[in-house]
């Protein structure tokens, strides 16, 4: 496994690396990504000459700067990664209960995360499940059809709908919360719609 301690990497047109369909950096700021996860390259199952990228997410409070330093100095131990799991980035997920579009999530695939060691995958999934860390839809509170462990910024539309932004005070409040969310284009588009209400 190759561990990246920052998100300023460049994946060239190297055929040995399977590139992610969605690059997380196109949707979430590097500062916000760095607080939550690290990119790793792992061997692609069945192909010794191919690697695939994942995002390593710690589901228990962990100082990622400390982990970075241990990896750099080669002093890390298995315990440092006990509460981490390989995830994939999804820019859009739809809740099939309420039809809400949820944005920018780290998800876990039960089969693909540890294809050569199902025991590790099952242990990590069981720890997450036992602690109730798989996220539900923030709008309706029902389970999602995909295992989500982290949202970088969710449901702008549902925030706007709930508030209905009919007064200047409410519009000002949305401007204040704008900094909490990473996807500036969506927020700006919502602000322009809110002004028309």
Radius of gyration: 19 Å
- Which runs of at least 5 residues are low in confidence (pLDDT < 50)? 154-171, 178-182
Order of helices and strands: EEHEEHEEHEHHH
The averaged pLDDT comes out at 75
Largest sheet: 7 strands, mixed
Distance between the termini: 51 Å
Overall shape: globular
Structural class: alpha+beta
Note the beta-strand portion. Answer: 15-25%
Number of strands: 7
Number of helices: 6
Helix content: 25-40%
Which tags fit this structure?
197 residues; alpha+beta; 7-stranded mixed β-sheet
What does this entry look like structurally?
Helix content is 29%, strand content 22%. It is α+β, with helices and mostly antiparallel strands and 197 residues long. The longest helix has 13 residues. The radius of gyration is 19 Å and the shape is globular.
What is this structure's SSE topology?
Layout lengths: L1 E2 L13 E2 L11 H5 L2 E7 L7 E8 L5 H9 L11 E11 L6 E8 L9 H13 L16 E5 L4 H8 L4 H10 L6 H13 L1
Parallel strand pairs: 2-4
Antiparallel strand pairs: 1-3, 3-4, 4-5, 5-6, 6-7
């Amino acid at each position: 496994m190759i561990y990246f301690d920052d998100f300023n990497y460049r994946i060239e047109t190297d055929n040995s690396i399977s590139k992610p369909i969605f690059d997380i950096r196109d949707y979430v700021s590097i500062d916000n990504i760095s607080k939550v996860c690290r990119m790793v390259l792992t061997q692609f199952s069945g192909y010794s000459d191919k690697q695939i990228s994942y995002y390593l997410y710690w589901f228990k409070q962990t100082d990622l700067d400390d982990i970075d330093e241990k990896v750099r100095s080669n002093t890390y131990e298995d315990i440092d990664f006990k509460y981490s799991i390989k995830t994939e980035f999804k820019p859009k997920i739809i809740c099939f209960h309420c039809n809400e579009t949820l944005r920018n999530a780290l998800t876990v695939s039960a089969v693909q995360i540890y294809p050569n060691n199902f025991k590790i995958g099952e242990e990590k999934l069981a720890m997450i499940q036992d602690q109730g860390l798989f996220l539900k839809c923030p709008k309706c509170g029902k389970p999602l059809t995909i295992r989500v462990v982290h949202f970088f910024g969710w449901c702008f539309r549902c925030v706007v709908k709930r508030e209905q932004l009919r007064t200047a005070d409410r519009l000002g409040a949305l401007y204040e919360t704008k900094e909490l969310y990473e996807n500036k284009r969506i927020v700006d588009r919502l602000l322009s719609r809110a002004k028309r209400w």
